[in-house]
């Protein structure tokens, strides 16, 4: 069984992420979306909330094969090994992404040569899209419906309402 890991913060998951998930799921028998618990960043959603949001999105996409969502911390290569993955999936929006991702892929390959990294260029309609941009737009009450799956739009707005009350 060929297992792939698509890691990221997914804070929140965007249509660009979903595009990569859909395409990458065709490469492997099982795709694990690895939600990074990064203590260096201050995410909008907790890791558990991000896992739940992704699972909600996947539930609505009935045509996707075996996909699991798991939170992890530590080294990605260690997580991939623990999951018996042979492929790490990464999305590229621009050439600057490639330079950064290439270094990480080469380092990961040095740490574990059995695991390869596969790059997906984003579809043109999502090449500008990032979770950071979505959060900035949402924080000012802007319309994010064209950037994230419909089923999580309200969750993003509700999170900002909750933050403003605190």
From TrEMBL:
SUPFAM superfamilies associated with the record: Nucleotidylyl transferase
Key words of the record: ATP-binding, Coenzyme A biosynthesis, Cytoplasm, Magnesium, Nucleotide-binding, Nucleotidyltransferase, Transferase
Domain Cytidyltransferase-like, chain residue ranges per copy: 5-136
CDD domains: PPAT
The keyword Transport appears for this protein: no
The protein's Enzyme Commission number: 2.7.7.3
Family: Belongs to the bacterial CoaD family.
Assembly, per entry: Homohexamer.
Protein name: Phosphopantetheine adenylyltransferase
UniProt organism field: Variimorphobacter saccharofermentans
Lineage: Bacteria, Bacillati, Bacillota, Clostridia, Lachnospirales
């Amino acid at each position: 069984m060929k297992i792939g890991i698509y890691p990221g913060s997914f804070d929140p998951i965007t249509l660009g992420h979903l595009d990569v998930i859909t395409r990458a799921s065709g490469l492997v028998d099982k795709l694990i979306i690895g939600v990074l618990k990064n203590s260096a960043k201050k995410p909008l959603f907790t890791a558990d909330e991000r896992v739940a949001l992704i699972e909600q999105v996947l539930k609505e996409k009935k045509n996707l094969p075996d996909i699991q969502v798991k939170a992890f911390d530590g080294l990605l290569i260690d997580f991939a090994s623990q999951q018996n993955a042979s492929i790490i999936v990464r999305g590229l929006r621009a050439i600057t992404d490639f330079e950064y991702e290439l270094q990480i892929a080469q380092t990961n390959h040095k740490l574990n040569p059995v695991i390869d990294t596969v790059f997906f260029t984003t579809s043109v309609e999502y090449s500008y899209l990032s979770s950071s941009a979505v959060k900035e737009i949402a924080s000012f009450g802007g319309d994010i419906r064209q950037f994230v799956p419909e089923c999580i739009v309200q969750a993003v707005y509700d999170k900002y309402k909750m933050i403003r009350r605190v």
